[in-house]
Amino acid sequence: MRSAHFRRIELHDKGFGVDLARPARPMAEEKNVLHHGTHIFSWGRGDLGQLGTERDQSEPQPVLVRAVEDKDVAQVAASVFNSAFITADAELWTTGSNDSCQLGHKGHDTQLHPSRVQALDAHGVCQVACGQQHMLAVADGGALCAWGAADSGQLGLGEIGVEQPHPRFLKGTKEQHFVRVAAGASHSLALTSSGQVWSFGQGSFGTLGQGDSFVANVPRPLPTLAALGIVQVACGESHNAALTIHGRVFTWGRGKYGALGLGTFNSSSWPQHVAALQEPACQVVCGGEHTMAICQQGRVFTWGRGNCGQTGLGTTDTVTFPARLQALEGHCVTQITAGLRHSMALTDSRQLWVWGNNSEGQLGIPVPSPCLDPVQAHAFPAEATIMYAVAGGEHSLVAVQNVGDLEADEAQHMWSECRGLSMAAMPGPSFAAGLAEQNDYPRKVSMLKRSAHDLFSCPGFMLHTFEMQPCTDSAPSSVEDSPTSSGSHHPAHGLDVAKITEVYNALLQVYSIELLGVVCRACKTQTDIIHSALCPDECQQNGLESHAQQQRIPRMVEPYQLIRALFILLQNPLNGDRTGMGVQLMGKLAFVTARIEQVNKACLSAWLRELPLDQFASRCVRPVQYYLGSLPQRQGSKQDREDLMRAVHLLHIMYQSNEGRSTRLPDSEFYNNDMSQSADLAQEYMIWRHLLEHRNENSGPGRGGGAGQRELVTLCQLPFVLSPEAKARIMQGEALLTKQHQVQASAIQALFQGVHPVMVQYLDVRIRRTHVLQDAMNQLMHRPGELKKPLRVTFISGGVDEEGLDEGGVTKEFFQLLIRQIFNEEFGMFKYMEHTRTFWFSHLSIELETEYRLVGSVLGLAIYNGVILDLHFPPVVYKKLLNGKPNFQDLKKAMPDLGHGLQQLLDYPGDVEADLATTFCVEEDNFGELQTHELKPGGSRIAVTNSNRQEYVDLHTKWVLEDSIQTQFTAFDEGFHQVCGGLALRLFQYEELELLVCGLPHLDFAELKKAAQYEGGYHPQHPLILVFWQVVMALTFEQKKSFLRFCTGCDRAPVEGLSGLKLTIQRGSPDTDRLPTSHTCFNVLLLPEYSSKEKLRSRLMTAIENAQGFGLQ
Question: Is the dihedral of CA 32, 38, 44, 45 positive or negative?
Fold first, then answer.
């Protein structure tokens, strides 16, 4: 015989403190009458042999079922006409009617005593359920088999009307790993170890829970229960109940007599939550047309038809809502069972209480029928301890055991862990405990694979495992109703993040690819379940659209719970796997998160903010980046584009999370370089531009851009994912389009004025070297309509135009000279701050607004024409240009000394008013005269105190960074946006704008060498080139800047670094005494083939130290 493996089911696992499998020791020791072992007693209706007593008659009192006396029966199931017994050796024995071959062997003779179902001897049986004329069983390994009547498809074998005399296994069920079965009159339910419910058979009254009343001859999963984590299912004649791991009860099917507990007599084709049952339940059972549940502290609730007193409420009335069974108050009930019209309950002291119909003697005691209140049954041997009870249709059975002569430890061993398994709800997956077990490696992996699948494929099970405190999955019903986390308006997730991390880390330490594959597949399954729960209508369209009478699928799980599950899944280290698993998982997660509502996205973002920074980066952000890198970047199929946009959307949730952190990841963590380099940026920009024009969107510039609730169709909607180099290319592309448009408009206007269009296609600027600032101001400020044309500069020396055509190099020099004069302290427009080596607006300047507008225009022109400036503003200037609001942190960066003083004021431990004697005023020296400015009306009379010092600091910050320079900055801002106010500016963060204007101060000449190109016979291994790079690499930092200025016209690197500069080194001539020359417009160095290293160094240094303009000083 095969030995079945059973597990003791303890309600301690669910927090209820009741053990269904191991009863308490009897209160008193009595003389033994029974032999050691398990004994089955039956009573009630027996005309068809359902009692197994070898007599075809009813028994009003318990009778020993002698045919299974030596079989060590572990489980019992019963229906109207049959009973079934599973032994500890996993054998199945059946008795009763065989009209439809439901006993599991040929012939239709009634069986008066149990006989073994030999067809299952080789498989071993773990569970069994009896329907009206069919049976179901779960074999070792989790496969389903069925036999008996098939007139309504209740066997799930794909056939209708053909009865099965022998057990047949349902195809594909072993892979699902079923652990529980239940049978109604003509329908069946099956439960997997991962908490999924499957139904098949007669669908009248919505019995199958699929939203219809159709017959199903093969098992179908119940989509509405998939996310809940079901641990028990029960069937009445035409109604059903399911229990979640959090203790919620769901019912569906026929509701004519209130058996659904929903307050009505209506049937339901979808599972509905029995909301009136407000206590978590630990067991649920269905009678013919009534239902019962055990809740906390062993309280029993009943509802449904009461015509025979089966509800135990002292009445024959029908009850449509759960009502507490008051007659058993004071007793802790550990198990309940229900027949057609009678019920039984077993307490922790092993007392059996019975009530309801007694017309066939099914109560086992001489009481009138109906019995409206519970009555204790005493008709058992004094030395017998009841282990569990089973109510058939109109008969009853109990399993008892004699332990009167055993010691306590022996008694505990006697109660086999399999006893009464079918009576109890199954526990959740034991994955976390399995990780800690010290089994041999193959056995440990084998055990973990099953529990890992169950845990990670079901949201309900996973949440139950990682919750900090037990809670029901019914509350909160929404984000708004959830308990809020400390310091946040978002709800608390209530999950043990440390335990989540611990389990994930332990999972990796098992070092089993096979186990990781199981976890990966399970997580994919769970994301599909979450999607179905979030968007049930989409599932309906995909799976049920052929049903003409389909109903709208209800939402069984509130989004808050599903977001909690996503929060756990996003921390999975397998998301970052680059062998394929990570791509699959992230694709699923991106698909689901794109469908959650904005309020839930904000909630998820807030929770991610609570993760440790390194974990947030490694487990959340980088896996999304890896996934993005695996996707086609350019416009491909519609599906490819949707996948890309969903991944960017997920990264946006993490970006928003990062923005709210006190310690943030650098923005570079969110740049996707693969996408930035390979995406069709021109097309992305044009889509964005079209979108804004037609949707009239006017979101201001600032950090991140933000897509809000709008449809995500282009990367420009979420620009944080684009690198500064990509944004710079978009900016240059936009500038080119604007230049073309401006040139075309000027050409048309010129034609009407009789001027040749060639004469107006440039913004021609003629600059005297002795009057750079004056000429620039006169020519730029008086031609605002031409600023967006291509700029062309001509220098004048001694009244004569200098040689050289401006292909970019002259323009660079023009900006350098202009900036140098503008920021000359003698000019007085800006003051130099020694501590930070930056310039700030002088609010005491007597210069007109025109000059500041010119500076803004110069800044805009430089960006517009792709010129890097040697400009030294604090970052807050760029923040203000993008309409950002300056704050105290900006002040501390721009003016550290002032910021430090104000911070000391905030931190001062003493009495601020008495000790510091400060008012809401600022004083400053205006050319020798002390001026006072009030920070608020009457500020000179308002003392700064401990209670208002934060206000003082805020107002002081506002005065320094905004109010005191309002006139100057407004003009500067207007000049800048007059030239550079296009859509592309919205893509930039202020740090990136500074980088765009000033370039990178860090010079990586190794990158310059790597990206260099060669012409005229030179190549990377040419002897002179090798010597050349030795000389260049040995230069000081200042000399390298001079070299860069000599070759390119600028001493700073562009936003992409020196690798993006593409310096070309061309052979200028054979060995000569002439100096090297350069074409700064094209970044070309003309290098003669000098005969020695010393000569090369000497000639090169002379050239770079004396170069200015198109000649030597």
Answer: negative
Distance CA 589, CA 582 (A): 10
Residue 308 among the catalytic residues: no
The tokens of 261 are what?
């507990």
Q: Give one DSSP letter per residue of 901-914, joined into a string.
A: HHHHHHH--S-HHH
**DSSP for residue 77:** E
How far is 229 from 467, CA to CA, in rounded Å?
14
- Residue 920 has φ and ψ, to the nearest 5°, of -80, 60
Tell me the pLDDT tens digit for each residue of 414-472. 333 445 556 678 887 877 666 766 666 777 788 888 899 999 999 999 999 999 865 44
Residue 208 banded pLDDT, cuts 50, 70, 90:
very high
Tell me whether residue 1036 is exposed, middle or buried, using C-beta atoms within 10 angstroms of its C-beta: 0 to 12, 13 to 18, 19 or more. exposed
- 26: how many CB neighbours lie within 10 A of its CB? 18
* Dist. CA 340–CA 861, nearest whole Å: 88
3-state secondary structure 544-611: CCCCCCCCCCCCCCCHHHHHHHHHHHCCCHHHHCCCCHHHHHHHHHHHHHCCCCHHHHHHHHHHHCCC
Instruction: Quote the longest CA-to-CA distance of the chain.
Output: 131
Please report how the helices 581-593 and 559-569 are oriented relative to each other, as an axis angle in degrees rounded to 10. Answer: 160
Strand order in the sheet with 384-391: 59-64, 38-44, 395-402, 384-391
The amino acid at 154: Q
* Side-chain half-sphere CA neighbours of 51 within 13 A: 28
What's the CA gap between 1060 and 1007, in Å, rounded?
A: 9
Measured at the alpha carbon of residue 985, what is the angle toward residues 894 and 1004, in degrees to the nearest 5? 65
Give the angle 681-684-686 at the CA atoms, nearest 5°: 110
State the DSSP H helix or E strand holding residue 797, giving kind and residue range, or none if neither: strand 791-797
pTM, two decimals, is: 0.82
Question: Would you mind telling me the total number of residues written for the chain in this entry?
Answer: 1113
How many Å apart are CA 402 and CA 414, to the nearest integer? 10
Burial class (CB in 10 A: 0-12, 13-18, 19+), 369: middle
Calculate ∠ Cα 259-260-266, nearest 5°. 95
Q: Which residue has the tokens 């058993």?
A: 328
Q: What is the SS3 assignment for 793? A: strand
Token pair in block for residue 675: 């996408």
pLDDT single digits (tens) 889-928: 999 999 999 999 999 999 999 999 999 989 999 988 766 6
Instruction: Give me the residues paired with residue 743 across strands.
Output: none
Nearest to 41 by CA among 52, 33, 30: 52
Q: What is the DSSP letter of 259?
A: T
Q: How far does Cα 1107 stand from its chain's mean position?
A: 58
Beta strands 178-183 and 249-253: pairing type?
A: unpaired
Sheet of 342-347: strand order equals 333-338, 342-347, 352-356, 371-377
Q: Measured between alpha carbons, how far is 326 from 334 in angstroms, rounded to an integer?
A: 16
Instruction: Summarize pLDDT for 255-290 with one digit per residue, the tens.
Output: 999 999 999 999 999 999 999 999 999 999 999 999
Q: Is 116 helix (H, G, I), strand (E, B) or coil?
A: strand
User: In terms of Cα–Cα distance, which of 339, 280, 269, 346 is closest to 304?
Assistant: 339
Query: Helix, strand or coil for residue 137?
Result: strand
DSSP secondary structure of 1005-1067:
HHHHHHH-EEETT--TT-HHHHHHHHHHHTS-HHHHHHHHHHHHS-SSB-TT-GGGT--EEEE
Q: On the CB side of 964, how many CA atoms lie within 13 Å of its CA? A: 23
Catalytic residue among 101, 921, 998, 1081: 1081
User: 398, 296, 307, 490: which is closest to 62 by C-alpha?
Assistant: 398
For the CA atoms of the chain, what is the radius of gyration? 41
CA angle 15, 19, 21 (to 5 degrees): 140
Distance between CA atoms of residues 863 and 980, nearest Å? 7
| Segment 653-664 mean pLDDT | 93
